Amino acid sequence: xxSLLTGPEGLMAKERENLxxxxxxxxxxxxxxxxxxxxxxxxxxxxxATDSAAQQAHTTRSSQRCLAFVDDVRCSNQSLPMxxxxxxxICQDTNQTLFKLCQGSEEVPCxxxxxxxxxxxxxxxxxxxxxxxxxxxxxxxxxxxELEAAPTDLxxxxxxxxxxxxxxxxxxx
Length: 173
Fold this sequence. Notes:
Number of helices: 5
Number of strands: 4
Shape: flat
Distance between the termini: 99 Å
Strand content: 5-15%
């Protein structure tokens, strides 16, 4: 900024004062001496901590595999966040309380893990018991036989309902 303000003819007194104020404002929040050294060290420590934490979180999440063994072979699925087991083996963790095994039915046993909800015995969608039907359809009323055998001459056809003559309309005052 100072090189732009200085010209071949030099600066006037007012311009020199403004330039001095501008330089002071630029340095106003700058740290000097011991304070600057400590601030720079703190920034470096923070950068190292955040970089290593982010890198460590990335490597641990990508390398976390389920700890369950199926037929002496380790499960290859990725574990759920904050756990050591995948969704199919989460019930092997004795400390977790978010999942329970589906009880199934007598005919079809089931051992799928299901999230615990408000019900006491959570079920998978296959074994979900629906509540009883709340809507009861109305019963059809029986029509008496005498109404069914009503004479048809009481009813007029569409042809009989049409007027045969066109009568002039008269309006009176």
